[in-house]
Amino acid sequence: MPQSAKEYFGQNWQMAWQSPVFRKKMLTGSLILVVLFSFFPWFFQTIEKRHGTRLNDLLLSRIPAYDVSIPIFLFLWAATLLIIYRGVQNPNIFIRILWSYTLLCLSRVITICVVRLDPPAGLLPLNDRLANAFYGPTFVTRDLFYSGHTASVFLIFLCLQKKGDKWFALLASVSVGVLLLIQHVHYTVDVVAAPFFAYLMYLLAIKIIRF
After folding, report:
1. What is the pLDDT of residues 58-110, one digit of tens each?
2. Which residues face 53 on adjacent strands?
3. How far apart are the first and last CA of the chain?
4. Residue 56: helix, strand or coil by DSSP?
5. For the whole model, what pTM was predicted?
6. CA 209, chain centre distance (Å)
7. Element holding 13 (H helix, E strand)
8. CA–CA dist 210, 176 (Å, integer)
């Protein structure tokens, strides 16, 4: 009798969970991420009170600012739901995105602390209640270098395996980056640097998983 998809995916997780190494890395990564999420509201509200440098962004100065929160929200959360769905199916994908995203969050804490920037001229608040829940009670404008939205979706592109999934996530990543510039939420350098940091964190996560 052929296996159902539910039984097949359940067996994948059962086999993975039997490995002490997998369990340890899964629980450790999850714990670090929970601690980071608990720390984020304080962190982002704190950095919002400081002042930094306002960059002379030649590209942004030529782009009128428009509120494109809805398409940003749709691209971001469609890619997020896709990686969750694929991760539930495949424990290897799940642990990759878990550790990659955890390292991405850690790296953003470091880069935001080191690179002190004031928000771009003409910034329009990004209306994403789901993502903004991690930022605290007020909208944060100084979490600039590098773009977490762009990096997160590009990270999803790296972690996915199926060709169609990867093409969609790559399209979503490019679209989110462009739309963030249209809304003046980030400087150009924030968006351009995001895929490079995402790729570095992905490589580091692979090393941790395979160690």
Report:
1. 999 999 999 999 999 999 999 999 999 999 999 999 999 999 999 999 999 99
2. 117
3. 38
4. coil
5. 0.91
6. 19
7. helix 5-17
8. 31
